[in-house]
Specification:
By secondary structure, the protein is mainly alpha-helical. It has 20 helices and no strands. Among the domains are: 18-146; 154-337 and 439-460, no CATH class. It is globular. Helix 5 (155-194) packs parallel to helix 8 and helix 9 (257-274) packs antiparallel against helix 19.
Length: 490
């Protein structure tokens, strides 16, 4: 009987046949990626109407998605690990509406009929090509056996690392708890008086005036570092759970679902690795409640004003008014594919290809803004800001946004050829990092991975600048502090 799996930590450790399985999966996926690329080239040379191709393209799209998920499950035994979570979020955010179309549940059509059939077909193709390339890189990178890695065998070394990791968590909590309460309180007042969108209709702080907001963002990372170092400390486990649940609850109340859900996912994964393995079956009901009850409910009530949004009667009436929460949640998450569609329509006529410039400015996003009135990345302009200002100027003026997509970013920089080349590298990095923490007991490494998950899960619907900024500030900096305090270098 196969052992029950949880997070990426099995209840009974087993030795995976990584070498043989990986070779077979890499070869099969390489053939699939080649077939997808050749199909796109052949279609561009032909004269087949997009209307006739779309009914066939959607099932193929879904089949490619299922193959990538199954192949990673076959290789790793679970999808609930860093790269597996990123892969699932990439498909849901960039292709959720295509899956509904296959099941004949998308009543308004893909992306609500806002784009021509040709644009929809091109968007489906570039998403499938991009994620196939991403997965190729991840499969290629995942060749290490966790048993061959150096382990922290000395108890004193492990205890010191755990103590310093926990200490950094406590320190970050003390630094962030006051600003977090202040930020959440003020944001709550704004939401109660003007709804969720009013948060984005305020004058943004710049320079050192962003200090309270920056410090408040350390709240969830503080809980994760505290948890990572609290294997034998009940107080740290309980307090980290309270901080994570409170922070996520506050974000749900304000209307921010992605960050709140990412915090819960990262905490559960880290708990399974550090404290006690959680069987996957235990997570099914909470995941369904989160995705198909909490998400739709937050969506319909977050624009409500006044204290009525906190009443049970109001929430009950709002829930009963939701037509189909399951379809609505998937359709809304899948609308991120519109950023790919808009980018394909606008480039290169409305904007030349960046040729890597946006990635260079994204790397600068990790540098603190201490020498400029406006950070160079902000002054240059992010891709999400450019897109919403171009296609929805009125909405942009009101503070609305569309987000972006790492797939669209690859196309925006290098065109069609750049999508597979760029995302193979991205997948290799993601797969290598995910593979590097498998079987690790280093609390600092696990805390670093959990905090990176906060950004990686949302990277599917954002751009590299967001990931670099959050990763440098809220993941790498605390990790470096642990290493400096402990003096332990890998």
């Amino acid at each position: 009987m196969q052992p029950m799996m949880c997070a990426d930590f099995p209840l009974v450790e087993r030795q995976p046949r990584i070498a043989s399985v990986r070779r077979a999966l890499c070869f099969s996926h390489a053939f699939l990626l080649f077939a997808v690329a050749v199909t796109g080239i052949a279609a561009s040379l032909g004269d087949i109407p997009a209307e006739d191709t779309l009914p066939v393209a959607a099932p193929v799209f879904a089949g490619v998605a299922l193959w990538t998920l199954w192949s990673w499950l076959k290789l790793r035994g679970t999808l609930l690990e860093p790269y597996g979570l990123f892969l699932m979020s990439s498909w849901v955010f960039n292709g959720g509406q295509v899956f509904l179309e296959v099941l004949h549940l998308n009543t308004n059509g893909i992306l609500g009929g806002s784009f021509s059939p040709l644009t929809i077909l091109r968007s489906e193709y570039i998403v499938a090509l991009g994620i196939c390339a991403l997965h190729m890189g991840a499969l290629w990178a995942s060749g290490s056996d966790s048993a061959s890695r150096p382990a922290l065998r000395r108890n004193q070394v492990r205890q010191d690392l755990a103590w310093h990791t926990r200490w950094v968590g406590w320190f970050l909590l003390l630094v962030s708890i006051g600003p977090a309460v202040w930020v959440f309180w003020n944001a709550g007042q704004v939401v109660l008086s003007g709804g969720y969108l009013s948060l984005y209709q305020q004058t943004l702080d710049i320079g050192f005036t962003t200090g309270p907001r920056v410090l408040a963002n350390f709240l969830i990372p503080s809980a994760l570092f505290m948890l990572a170092g609290s294997k034998a400390k009940r107080t740290g486990v309980v307090l980290s759970a309270i901080v994570t649940a409170s922070g996520s609850g506050a974000m749900f109340f304000l209307g921010g679902r992605g960050s709140a859900a990412a915090a819960l996912v990262a905490y559960v994964w880290l708990y399974s690795r550090v404290i006690r393995p959680i069987p996957a079956r235990v997570l099914i009901v909470p995941a369904l409640l989160l995705g198909f009850v909490v998400f739709p409910l937050v969506r319909v009530v977050r624009d409500a004003r006044g204290l009525e949004r906190t009443s049970i009667e109001f929430l009950s009436n709002a829930w009963s008014g939701i037509d189909n929460p399951v379809i609505g949640s998937v359709a809304e998450m899948g609308y991120s594919m519109s950023t790919v569609a808009y980018t394909l329509e606008l480039l290169p006529s409305a904007r030349p290809f960046d040729e890597g410039v946006s990635y260079l400015y994204a790397l600068l996003a990790g540098v603190p803004n201490v020498a400029w009135a406006v950070h160079p990345t902000t002054a240059h302009g992010t891709l999400s800001t450019w897109l919403v200002s171009t296609v929805m100027p009125y909405a942009a003026a009101q503070g609305n946004g569309l987000g972006y997509s790492f797939i669209a970013e690859a196309y925006e920089n290098f065109g069609w050829i750049g999508v597979p080349l760029t995302l193979i590298v991205t997948g290799w990095v993601a797969g290598r990092l995910s593979d590097a923490v498998r079987g690790r007991s280093d609390p600092a490494i696990l805390a670093l991975t959990a905090t990176l998950l906060l950004s990686a899960i949302l990277y599917a619907r954002s751009e590299t600048a967001d990931f670099v900024r959050n990763g440098c500030w809220y993941s790498i900096m605390p990790y470096i502090l642990v290493r400096l305090l402990s003096g332990v270098r890998q």
